[in-house]
Amino acid sequence: MNYKYFILLLILFVCACREKTPEKSVVIPLKVFSDSVYQDNPEIGFRSKNYHEKLYNALHLTRNTDTSFDLKFTDSSDSKRFIILKNVDLGVLIPTVSEWLKPDHYLTTIEIASQEWNHQQISFSKGETGIELSGGSFEKKDFGKIDLIQNSLGAGLWEVIVYEKKDNQELPYFHGWFELPSAIYQYLFEQKNKLFYKDYKAFLENGKKPAQEKIDLSLLRQELDTKPINFLSLNEYFYPLKGEFPGKMKNVVYPLNPSIIQEFLNDTTAFASFGSVGLYDKTRPHATELGRMANLENILQKKIIVPESSQDTLTEFEFQFSDVNDNRKIRMFLGGVNLKKIPRLTFEEIENAWQMPFGIGNHSFRESYQESLNYSGSKSPYYGILTDEHKNWLDNKPVGIDGSLLFVEKGFPHKLHFLLLSYERHAIVGHYLMQI
To answer: What is the pTM of this model?
Structure first.
């Protein structure tokens, strides 16, 4: 075959496999659900008394350049009411692969799947550059912030929450659900990662799970030093119902009315499932295997170096769990942690703790838009991974955990608190005090 002809065919093939540039503008309908339909909404009882079920009904999405878009939320019954977010980089809500992991298809797949199937919420507060408001007294006086949410159910299933701010408190005022057009999502994914969307489509859209294989942790970090550390289990106590925990607590199916954390650590624990377009449902409970984490046997603290990290050394913690009969083992690796950036808090302030989902390179569950821009997913040193005793990867969702919290006890710089977040962050299902 003529060499030039072969190159031309190759270029045409690559172009055909890439998603075409999506339309410049699109109108996306917003879905809303009444309390009678969405009875297990954790916001009920914890939202504005002026909650407006049908404040906006459409999103006008306009692409500027590459991953930058203008978002305009409108009310078809009132053309003067709208919220505009200008020049938003929607790429911050798209799974992003660490450059040094791209040669390893297995870890790349875990990274993409774990980022798509975890909650990510970014906030735009009143007064920030790029926000335009128009409407009545709410927009003029009481608007606090607007959040965009990648809701962990699959490619492009997103939400928007508008908050009212009164008496220094921000409460949900409007909540809508929408689906980003597939062409736009695929375009954003390929722009961000320079990978073919079709190769990961099943993991992004259909919930396909990576195979349970041995993880090569040496690709994530280089160990420099390891030492066991002393710790104390605080699972015989409960936790403060602050932040989102009061609303989430009502979606704990079992145990009923728990009074200590240890009551969660068995296989009978269940939570409201999260499905459909993004609704909790107690009638279809999510079973767990939290009995596998009944006993924390050991904690190892490791000094590590992460590829391409600008920080000299970071920390990894390895937690070794077992069930009450010592039959089932779980190893948890929480790495890429910069201890200098862990907040100093009292126990009553745990809603402000360092919070991260399980996965590789994930954003925090909640962050400001500016924080999301400053966070480089392709260069993030973070990883939170579960394995069995042989270091075969475990999916955290069936176990019943979604992420972790860390905070240093205020006034005691060597006391580091580690807490485990349950499936969908409904509860705290582990609390351990480490001496570092």
So the answer is: 0.92
